[in-house]
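Need residues for this backbone.
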């Protein structure tokens, strides 16, 4: 018994091509489907000149250059004699540079269509780097094949039939370290959606053959499948080319009649046929067998056979009709290293089995992990709009090891990964911010800093709900900035970075934000709070001891004081304070007087003339308050910078400072609600300084007496003399001398002060609010006292007895927990002020609705969080 054909290798030898070209040239195309419609085709001749295109002389296919489909690689010509080569085989694109290089095809018919994709590789000694090379081929993010080149004369072809799930189809070549990848041709063909359907897998072509003496493709096959001739031998009579055959009921695969009209009939009437090919035991085989009767059988003749694969029954008994029957398996068969398809005659049959054409595929599921389409489209558009020269190829987010540089993605849904950050800092961008970015709806961080961007900052940036960080520094954007953007920044939901220009940006603390870090889920023991009050300014009397001349120089040089309209002369200050009649406070640096400007009450702090230190503080406070505006930070009304008299004018805070209300035996007891509100106010002010300002500002002297209360008991932070603004790099590790007030100083800050030091101090203030005890009283630290009292189980005992039990237990516990978290010894364990604000607001809300938010973790009190390790 002889085997017909087999093992048609994918590497089609050159002689076959010469043959094929020759035949085609001689052949007058017989148009079964008289159509010359290439609208579903993309036919790329890799490596020809940019913009070139031509019609293949043998095929009539319209070839285009690969320019526009890929951005990397170099064009080469094969060094073989080009006789007998198809035109596309004479050029190629080689990729010496990147690890991954991708073609991106965007067929106009879009996704959810079935396409045939074909990639071709003919080495042709194009470079001197040796013909042996091996590289991987990917379809999108899925492995497709390994191309192993050992013979420059053999063309390697890979073909796949694939239902796409995105509009962009990328074909990527991966350098696996065995020589530069290259490619000669790339073909995409739109198939009808009902062709090759019913498989959950994609079909990788092994063989596609028929009985004929020439290769068939477009235009005989309007889908440009390539049908290679099956070789025959003496066991076969003739190939019968029959006019009998018609497209049958099962015409789903649209096999051209050119192909199925042919069948070879064995000479002997008893002959079992075998079709063999080699494969792998891991293969999942999908087989299409196309059968149609080509003989007119006599009444006493019967053709009937069964079909077996590797000895296992597949189909039958089959008695072919003149209309086409296609046999196929929807569930893949397990392959073997050498596969045998047997056509065995049944006992009834007196004619040998026939078949007309055969297609063998292996099926494999492509996961098609990909970036969500709108995101991918947006980022590609952004790339092309700015003419970015980055190696951004293939899918933006997949595979993860090839994530586009500057991007980060959320992979929660691998079928639609989302872009969550984009960093185009210093990328030479110019022009306006492109609208494509509006489609990156999940983006959290966008860094466009240090480019040459101009025009208006677009409104849509404010509509990106997830955007938490926006860096626009170092560009030339027009003003004003969109109000919504500023509002978000002010509210704290966006961290906006841009240089402050002119008055219109003022009051928004642009270089930062008071973001609500809901996304960072720092687990804080819950709580509630309150806080504080405050007082007036501290003060001082004045007089600057330095020589007049020297002070004057200082004043002139200092750019802090350029804002003339807030500056007052000493005699104006005298006037405002009615010649310093009413003292409302006194402190280490000076005295605070009551005053009035146009009927509005103010507080005027006059620096004592005693120290240079005082002048420094004066400068830093004025500078800072001029830039910072927040409802919970005392408003700077003006200042006086006369040669030797310095003063600062603030809004008047009628109810003094929080310390006075807590400790000084005021008869008006601050209610629990009011304490919560005060705590919340003060926390918001601090959160704004920490997270809303760029660089962040560390107050460095948070304490009850620096929290002032206005006539409505709204709390505002005051006394910024020690405050420092730190550059971004310094924000977490600030080397500066520890300042502050005993009892409130961060123990974990050996001569470093950070925003977390303020959190610590604020925790102490919270404890004071809860207990009405001073930070240090009778030499006992309030933290130790609270912890030991709670540890003994007397939680109620720590609450200010003056409240006489008029407090909400739930919010009280939460407040205690929050305070304890704030005074964690390790600064890393402390919440941020944004977290604190969030907790306090929750508590406040719970308090106001007389209904505490259930929180199982907070009751009973979490003692673990209270036994913070002591200093090592
Ligand atoms: C590549 O092909 C050559 C020749 O067929 C073979 O010897 C070699 O093992 C192949 N390489 C790989 C990695 O399969
Ligand atoms: C190919 O087959 C056709 C009939 O199918 C025949 O007419 C033609 O002569 C054959 N050509 C060659 C080169 O064998
Ligand atoms: C079938 O019938 C034909 C005449 O129609 C005859 O020549 C032939 O021998 C018969 N063959 C068989 C197998 O009976
Ligand atoms: C098919 O026929 C061949 C040869 O005629 C035989 O060896 C084989 O066992 C048959 N297969 C089956 C499954 O009957
Ligand atoms: C695709 O996603 C699946 C999970 O759905 C994951 O297991 C696989 O590793 C991903 N593949 C790639 C190439 O990222
Ligand atoms: C991307 O984001 C994840 C999660 O936010 C983070 O762990 C990872 O480091 C980021 N990768 C890059 C390259 O920024
Ligand atoms: C963006 O990249 C630059 C340098 O490449 C880096 O300095 C900057 O921190 C990055 N931006 C963000 C938001 O991570
Ligand atoms: C945003 O995405 C939609 C839907 O994919 C698309 O129609 C639109 O053109 C995109 N907008 C921009 C500016 O790219
Ligand atoms: C920035 O853009 C302006 C206006 O388009 C142009 O004149 C200038 O040369 C650009 N600067 C750089 C560094 O590209
Ligand atoms: C832009 O600002 C953000 C937030 O301040 C920062 O993380 C990032 O590093 C900045 N980018 C550059 C290039 O400095």
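Answer:
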């Amino acid at each position: 018994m002889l085997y017909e054909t087999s093992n048609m290798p994918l590497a089609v030898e050159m002689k076959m091509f010469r043959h094929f070209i020759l035949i085609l040239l001689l052949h007058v195309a017989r148009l079964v489907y008289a159509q010359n419609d290439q609208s579903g085709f993309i036919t790329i001749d890799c490596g020809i000149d940019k913009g070139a295109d031509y019609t293949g002389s043998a095929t009539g296919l319209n070839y285009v250059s690969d320019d526009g489909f890929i951005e990397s690689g170099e064009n080469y010509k094969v060094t073989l004699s080009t006789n007998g080569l198809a035109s596309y085989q004479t050029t190629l694109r080689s990729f010496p540079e990147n690890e991954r290089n991708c073609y991106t095809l965007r067929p106009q018919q879009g996704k959810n269509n079935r396409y045939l994709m074909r990639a071709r590789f003919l080495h042709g000694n194009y470079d001197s780097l040796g013909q042996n090379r091996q590289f991987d081929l990917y379809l999108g993010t899925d492995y497709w094949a390994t191309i192993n080149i050992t013979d420059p004369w053999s063309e390697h072809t890979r073909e796949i039939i694939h239902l796409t799930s995105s509009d962009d189809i990328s074909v990527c070549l991966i350098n696996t370290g065995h020589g530069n990848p290259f490619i000669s041709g790339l073909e995409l063909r739109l198939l009808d959606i009902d062709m090759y359907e019913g498989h959950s897998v994609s079909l990788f072509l092994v063989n596609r053959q028929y009985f004929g003496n020439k290769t068939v493709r477009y235009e005989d096959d309007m889908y440009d499948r390539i049908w290679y001739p099956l070789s025959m031998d003496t066991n076969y009579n003739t190939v019968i080319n029959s006019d009998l055959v018609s497209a049958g009921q099962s015409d789903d695969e649209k096999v051209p009649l050119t192909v199925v009209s042919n069948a070879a009939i064995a000479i002997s009437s008893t002959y079992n046929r075998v079709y063999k090919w080699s494969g792998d035991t891991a293969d999942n085989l999908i087989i299409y067998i196309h059968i149609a009767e080509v003989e007119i059988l006599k009444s006493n003749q019967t053709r009937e056979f069964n079909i077996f694969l590797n000895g296992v029954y597949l189909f039958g008994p089959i008695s072919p009709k003149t209309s086409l029957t296609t046999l196929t398996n929807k569930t893949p068969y397990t392959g073997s290293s050498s596969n045998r398809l047997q056509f065995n005659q049944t006992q009834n049959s007196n004619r040998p089995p026939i078949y007309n054409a055969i297609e063998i595929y292996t099926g494999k599921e492509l996961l098609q992990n990909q970036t969500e389409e709108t995101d991918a489209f947006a980022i590609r558009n952004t790339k092309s709009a700015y003419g970015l020269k980055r190696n951004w190829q293939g899918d933006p987010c997949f595979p993860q090891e090839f994530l586009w540089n500057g991007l980060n993605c959320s992979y929660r849904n691998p079928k639609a990964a989302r872009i969550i950050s984009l960093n185009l800092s210093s990328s030479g961008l110019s022009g306006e911010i492109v609208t494509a970015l509006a489609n990156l709806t999940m983006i959290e961080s966008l860094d466009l800093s240090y480019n040459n961007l101009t025009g208006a900052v677009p409104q849509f940036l404010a509509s990106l709900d997830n955007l938490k960080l926006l860096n626009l520094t170092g560009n030339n954007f027009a003003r004003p900035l969109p109000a919504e953007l500023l509002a978000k920044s002010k509210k704290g939901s966006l961290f906006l970075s841009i240089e402050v220009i002119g008055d219109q940006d003022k009051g928004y603390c642009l270089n930062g934000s008071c973001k609500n870090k809901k996304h960072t889920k720092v687990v804080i023991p819950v709580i509630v709070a309150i806080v504080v009050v405050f007082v007036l300014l501290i003060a001082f009397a004045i007089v600057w001891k330095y020589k007049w001349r020297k002070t004057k120089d200082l004043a002139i040089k200092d750019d802090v004081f350029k804002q003339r309209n807030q500056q007052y002369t000493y005699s104006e200050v005298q006037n405002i304070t009615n010649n310093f009649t009413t003292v409302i406070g006194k402190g280490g640096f000076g005295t605070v007087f009551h005053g009035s400007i146009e009927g509005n009450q103010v507080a005027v702090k006059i620096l004592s003339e005693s120290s240079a230190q005082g002048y420094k503080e004066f400068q830093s406070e004025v500078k800072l308050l001029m830039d910072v505006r927040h409802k919970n930070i005392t408003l700077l009304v003006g200042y006086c910078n006369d040669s030797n008299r310095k003063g600062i004018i603030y809004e008047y805070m009628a109810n003094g400072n929080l310390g006075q209300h807590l400790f000084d035996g005021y008869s008006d007891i601050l209610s629990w609600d009011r304490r919560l509100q005060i705590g919340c106010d003060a926390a918001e002010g601090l959160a704004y300084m920490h997270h809303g300002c760029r660089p962040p500002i560390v107050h460095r002297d948070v304490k009850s007496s620096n929290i002032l209360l206005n006539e409505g008991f709204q709390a505002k932070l005051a006394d910024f003399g020690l405050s420092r603004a730190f550059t971004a790099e310094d924000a977490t590790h600030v080397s500066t001398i520890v300042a502050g007030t005993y009892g409130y100083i961060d123990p974990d800050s050996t001569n470093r002060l950070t925003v977390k030091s303020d959190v610590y101090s604020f925790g102490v203030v919270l404890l004071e609010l809860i207990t009405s005890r001073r930070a240090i009283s009778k030499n006992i630290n309030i933290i130790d006292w609270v912890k030991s009292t709670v540890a003994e189980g007397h939680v109620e005992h720590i609450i200010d007895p003056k409240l006489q039990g008029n407090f909400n237990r739930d919010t009280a516990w939460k407040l205690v927990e929050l305070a304890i978290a704030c005074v964690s010894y390790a600064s890393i364990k402390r919440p941020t002020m944004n977290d604190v604000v969030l907790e306090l607001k929750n508590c406040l809300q719970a308090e106001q609705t007389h209904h505490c938010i259930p929180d199982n973790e907070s009751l009973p009190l979490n003692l673990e969080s209270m036994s913070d390790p002591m200093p090592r």
